Amino acid sequence: MGSGIEGLSGMRPVTTWPDYRDVNILRPLLTLDKSDLVTVCRCEGVEWVEDPTNQTALYTRNHYRQLLEKEDPQLLESVQTLTELCHSTNTLIAQQGTTYQA
Q1: Containing domain of residue 53, as a range?
Q2: Concatenated DSSP letters for 2-35?
Q3: Which of 27, 30, 40, 60 is the most exposed place for a label (fewest CB within 10 A)?
Q4: Contact present, 10 and 4 (Cβ < 8 Å)
Q5: pLDDT tens-digit map of 32-45
Q6: Structural domains counted in the chain
Q7: 94: domain CATH number?
Q8: What is the pLDDT of residues 2-34, one digit of tens each?
Q9: What is the rounded CA–CA span in Å between residue 15 and residue 6?
């Protein structure tokens, strides 16, 4: 993926498996807030389990996420907006490429 428009689009709720074009990866909970998921689990009597490495700064992704969340609590919403814009842009570019190839 990388850091171009496609990389900045982030994970999508539905993605085609790269090696198998007829297999989709579904992420139905991707758009839900963590707090909502935790609440639903509690209400349904399901134990919430979290990867303990998410709380450490050992991994670069966690270090920056923790740093930025502390600096700007609205950052997550801004990043989500950015990923949607990048996804829309990437989709438009792909559609235009198909149009020009035809």
Answers
A1: 5-101
A2: TTSHHHHT---SEEE-TT-TT-EEE-TTTTS-HH
A3: 60
A4: no
A5: 888 999 999 999 99
A6: 1
A7: 3.40.50.620
A8: 668 888 888 888 888 878 888 999 999 888 888
A9: 12
